[in-house]
Structure formats: structure tokens, C-alpha cells
Amino acid sequence: MPRTDRQPLIASVQALGVALAAAVALPAAAGDSIYRRSVGQAGSASELATAPGAAPPIAPVDPAPAAAVPQPRAAPAATPGDPAPAGTGSDEQTEGRAERIVAAALAGIARAPSISLRVRQLVRVGDTVLKGGGRYVQSGVDEDQRFRYETRLSAATEEFDVLEVCDGLFFWNTRRYGTLPTGVERIDVRRLRERLATLGLLARGDTAAYLGGILEPLAQTREWFRFTGVTAVDVDGVPAWVITGEWDRERLATLLPDQAEAIRTATGIAATDLPEGLPWSVRLSISRRELFPFRVEWLAVPGRRPVTGAVEVVGVLEFYDVRIGDPVDAAAFVHRPGNDPLVDLTDITVAYLKPLRP
Predict the structure, then answer these.
(1) Pairing mode, if any, of strands 293-300 and 114-125?
(2) For the whole model, what pTM was predicted?
(3) Which of 167, 252, 254, 270 is the most exposed place for a label (fewest CB within 10 A)?
């Protein structure tokens, strides 16, 4: 089925593991900093490689030991002569700065010579809590870029596994959802890049944003939300920006046509007017030194509609043990698909591709 304007949001929410959400943040590894550069145990890329002749494995999650949840601390008050702190000034200036920080963070991911990191997620879907994590590795830039992203979310009785591999020639997406048959999708990267070149977009170097990995869901989030607030904080000793995002009203009106008229009014709609499972806002935590996003939080009013209550965190995605510029084992990007049915999405993807925001 061709992708429509609604599907990127659905895909991004699923990829972030935030179909509906969690009321608490993920526990941090004891003694770990949320963000690390070239330190800690990021996991060998060779551990992710597919064994010859075997179906693509989905590595088990190594959950971090429970510890106190890190709480952001506001930056110290400015002293005379200091530049104005983030979040001050006109709304237009603040919004512009928020958008620039997010755009720069995503561009940094696309241009990094290599990235390896671990992932953890916590999600509540109705009354079901899903917890999990995974690993991500990336190497090369532009046409030489390869990546591998594998995650697992576990509920009480089912597990949801996703493996994405871009080997430079093809992008492979393998999904195992509970007892459902394994689904395998493929996109020809060369043809996608040809389409991007036709649209004058190839020079951006962000082909992965149209495929998968960690860049695609972040880029799709930026398509659907407008970032309007910036706050300087300290998270476990890491100077960071907390960037808040609100719905692009036209996008939301397209997604919810029955409420489009109310959405477009000056007052808009309330968080409780959204369907259960649809986030009201998003919050990104981005390292100020490296401009790397290390946490994504989705906020909403949980519960079956009609509902009353306050907006709260309903889903969390964290990147930790981040290492940039370290050598990456090329075996991580060798993919040998098994015998599961294959669906080639190249034609559909190329036909319906739309430029992302610059």
C-alpha cells in the first residue's frame, strides 16, 4: 500500500517505540553518564553481524541495572555580562533557535564518520507496558554510509523485534511482532539516491533520513512537529538543551480531518481531544557540547477517551554509551536475508518520496 502523508508519523512513532507511552523515564545504568564519547561499553559491531547462512538475528536486549532516574537541573542563573539564557527573548527568536539546534543535531548524525550506541525504551500501550532496548552502529558518509539498527520491546507475553540494515546497496527491514509472520522489506538505495538527486536533495547527505536507522524517525518527528522552546539544563553533569516541540497544525489537521476546523482556530484543541495513543508534544534532550540527541520524550494525556488529566511523559527513547568517530567492524553491515517472504518497496518509496524540511 503506498505511503501517504499519515504513514510517516505512524512509522516514526512505531520506530521510536512510542505508540502510547510511559509515565516514568528509563532507569539509567548505575554510574553511567547518559552521554559518553569514546568511553564505556558500546558493544562490538561484530556482535551484531549476521552469521553466514543464517536468518538475520535480533540481538537480545541487555537491560541496564535499575538506578535513580536522572533529573534535569536548570542551568545556573546568569550573572551580569553573561549572554541571555536560552528561552529568553521573543517567541520568534526562541522558536528559530530551537529549530536551528534540532536541524544541526540531525545534520551532525548524517555527517558523523561513525556512530555506535546503545538504546533503551519504555512505552505504555493502553494498560500494557513495553520495555526494551537495542544497538545502533553507523559508518561512512554520503553514498558510503552504512548502518545497522536493532531493537526489541518486550511485554508480559510478547516480544517485538526490529532489525534495519543498510549495506550501501539495499536497505533491509525485518520485523517480528509477537506470533505474527516475520515481515521483510527492501529498498534499492541506488534508486532512492537517484530520486533525491532529481529533486536536488542529494547534496544534503541525509539519505538515511528517508530510509531508517536513528535518523529517519528523528527527521520524521521534525516534519510533524515545530520546535518552539529551548531550555539549558544539566543532566548527570552533561550540559544539554531541552527542546520542546508542538504539532504543526496543518499536519495535525491532515491527520485528524474530523477535527481539522477546530485545530485551525486560534485556540486549537486540547490535549484531551487527541485520540489515545497520539502524542500531544515532544521533548528532545541534546548535548550542548556535541549537539547529539540523547533522549526523546513523548507527552500526552493517557487513558481511554473521554479522559481528564494532565499531560505527562508517555514514552521515552534514550541513546547512551554513544561513541563517535571510533572504528566500526564492517561485518555489522553484512546482511543475509533468510527465507521469509520479501516485499520490495523501492517503487512505492521512490514514487511517493517528498523532500524533508531543510
Answers:
(1) unpaired
(2) 0.77
(3) 270
